[in-house]
């Protein structure tokens, strides 16, 4: 599965933290992994319901394009290391499938039909979950924490070209970073991002991934701004 590092670097300006991390990190780089009890205390502090906007971006010729957004959307963060987005609309992921201009091959037509099916879908994911945790003390700052995010794969069924297909939306597990901050423990910020890094059709295995010719990564930013 292809790397998303270059994509993330190109969109880093889109997901800027609301605090200065550098002034709060340990200078000696002697970072410690939290104990189970410390991790539980961090997550208890971060637990709550957050939301505002989820934005969707793809990369096109070294440019980042915002193609859609969901406003007034919320997600729930629990103290058991889980982030849950409820009734997530799968149709927002249609732009991950890209059909090159003048490509009239059978494969292009098949994937164009899948893209249309996703776009027109009324499918929602009742519980789209991700795991989160604070990796070590370098992720601490004056008003809160940075944390790593690990989204679970979404499985949905679509009918196109007269046949039903299981489709797997696979998110990168490189541990993309989120931000929790609160200066008064009342006004809380909890923001994070995810990258859709692959789509499998019919069976969840590497050989069934849509090739890079027809697939482009999608960045989702979940932000309280």
Quick overview of this protein structure:
With 225 residues, the protein is mainly beta. The protein contains three helices and eleven strands.
Task: Give an overview of the whole structure.
The chain has 225 residues and is mainly beta. The relative contact order is 0.22. The protein is elongated and about 55 Å long. The protein has three helices and eleven strands. It has an eight-stranded antiparallel barrel with strand order 1-2-3-4-6-9-10-11. The chain has helices at residues 5-11, 36-46, 106-119, and strands spanning 48-60, 63-77, 82-89, 124-133, 140-141, 144-151, 154-160, 163-171, 176-181, 189-201, 218-223.
Structural class category: mainly beta
Rg of Cα set? 19 Å
Query: How many angstroms does the end-to-end distance come to?
Result: 32 Å
Percent strand equals 35-45%
Q: What is the tally of helical segments? A: 3
- What form results from the Cα inertia axes? elongated
- Write the element-wise H/E pattern from the N-terminal end onward: HHEEEHEEEEEEEE
Instruction: Work out the number of β strands.
Output: 11
- Fraction of helical residues: 10-25%
Strands of the biggest beta sheet: in what spatial order? 1-2-3-4-6-9-10-11
Largest sheet: 8 strands, antiparallel, barrel
The averaged pLDDT comes out at: 86
Q: Segments where pLDDT lies below 50 for 5+ residues?
A: 1-5, 8-28
